Amino acid sequence: MSTRSTAALLLVFVGALITPSVDGAAAPSLRVLSPIEGDTIGSALIIGGEGSGIDNVSVQLDDGEVVGASGSDAWSFALDLLGQSAGSHTLTIRATSTAGPLMVLRNVTYDPIVPTSLELEQQLSPLRAQQGQTVLISGFVRTSQQARLQEGFVQVRIGGLPSVANGSIDLLGSFTVALKAPAQSGSLTLTTTVDAPTLNLSVTGTLPLEVAPPTGPDVAIEELQQLTAVPVSNLTLNLSARLRNNGSEPAAVTMRLYDGPPSADTLVQRHDLTLPPGVEVQQLQLTPRAAGVHHLVVNLTIATEDPQRSNNERFLDVDVEARPRLIVNGLLLATDQPQQDHPISMRVGISNGGDATATCRLAIEAQRIDASGKALAGNAPQLVVSKELVFAPGEERILSGSGLDPWMPTTGGRWQLRAQVLATAPADPDTSDDVATISVEVEGTPEQPQRTSLPSLSLLLGALAIGVLLAQRRRTR
């Protein structure tokens, strides 16, 4: 193509671009972003650009076939130059519009030599970020032969930290990767690595990043941990919440624990806290009322603006076992004045507050004690009652009368009665309230006074007769 023809075509194109708008509307436009004028290209070329108010974009190499590109506002076309002669070539890009045909020419040089290196240009926005703020790394990759990449992969690593952000290069060799500034403040280095597998090439570049702590509170729940090894229904379940305030100021927060989806009905605990900058661990407790999987939720709310609210909630599924929960509710005497060697009736209240049926044995023992409540020396406990029982979940029962053998104290004085449920199957995990005791004063049997033996009537009469006889003899002398 002659220089005069080329100039004419360029005038047509420029004229199309500067055509006045109709009725104030923007004039159609056709822009070619790749390749640029005078590029040295390789065998695989991506032709691409953008436009406004256009359609039917087509590409032609020299006097060859006219081939349609894909897209209109953003369009592209992959061209394979294998088999073409090395040297100068002309690319003609055309489009139709309401203002008439548009055309752009690109004069390029085809060099079939495979590129030997990549060139990386990149920039960071912003250069100084707060902890947790999103930053963008954008750039452009060229080959040593000015051939555009068909594909490539980008990896950005923050120096000294394990986090990696991955991205890809688009058809024009440009890329954008987003990552969050870490919780570590100070001067950091971002290392960008670009790999072009089709060319077996890679390139690395670095950028400095200044990270500062947030100016206000920034709170998070880093971890929610179960401390109780085997959670059991109706027993305390202990949890640990690891909280962090990444901000530079103390934060007033409210921490809530829910047993189920957050609602007024599932709220278990609420704590109003002031978190200083740094890490703090809070202990939480709840008592699951039923066996099964409990979906626990812990969240933080803060009155001031929190830049990262998404990390203010944690979830934990806890599998709670079904167990009995036997309780001796009380031990009473049904006899008003306990006496030695007299039967004494007792009453015992027992309940099962768990969610599993329990088989157990009720044992009642009696033992002599002193005024301070200590067992008297040599007085071993006496088993008064031994009874096998079965309690269903939620069952409460009072044993007395014919259902409970009476107690027959052998001596008077102070006694202690002890009622306890034993041999629970399945085991009761909390035996702290499986016992009830009472002290009893037993009235002893009164001692009878000793009687003086009197002589019999016959002996008295005999003695009287002897006395009369002796008196008569004294008178006859």
Brief summary:
Helices cover 7% and strands 51% of the residues.
Question: What topology does this entry show?
Answer:
Blueprint: H1 3-17, E1 29-34, E2 40-41, E3 44-52, E4 54-61, E5 66-68, E6 74-80, E7 87-97, E8 102-110, E9 118-125, E10 128-130, E11 134-143, E12 152-158, E13 164-169, E14 174-180, E15 186-196, E16 201-212, E17 219-226, E18 237-245, E19 251-259, E20 267-275, E21 278-286, E22 292-302, E23 313-320, E24 326-333, E25 346-352, E26 358-368, E27 382-391, E28 396-399, E29 413-425, E30 435-442, H2 457-476
Parallel strand pairs: 2-8, 10-16
Antiparallel strand pairs: 1-3, 3-6, 4-5, 4-7, 7-8, 9-11, 11-14, 12-13, 12-15, 15-16, 17-18, 18-21, 19-20, 19-22, 22-23, 24-25, 25-28, 26-27, 26-29, 29-30
Describe what you observe in this structure.
The protein has 477 residues and is mainly β. It has four domains: 3-110, Immunoglobulins (Immunoglobulin-like, Sandwich); 118-212, Macroglobulin (MG2) domain (Immunoglobulin-like, Sandwich); 219-320, Immunoglobulins (Immunoglobulin-like); 326-442, Immunoglobulins (Immunoglobulin-like). Helices cover 7% and strands 51% of the residues. The chain is built from two helices and 30 strands. It has helices at 3-17, 457-476, and strands at residues 29-34, 40-41, 44-52, 54-61, 66-68, 74-80, 87-97, 102-110, 118-125, 128-130, 134-143, 152-158, 164-169, 174-180, 186-196, 201-212, 219-226, 237-245, 251-259, 267-275, 278-286, 292-302, 313-320, 326-333, 346-352, 358-368, 382-391, 396-399, 413-425, 435-442. The strands form eight sheets. The protein has a five-stranded mixed β-sheet, with helices on one face. Strand 15 (186-196) and strand 16 form a beta hairpin. The longest helix is centred in the C-terminal third of the chain and has 20 residues, at 457-476. The chain is rod-shaped, with a radius of gyration of 50 Å. Residues 1-22 have low confidence and may be disordered.
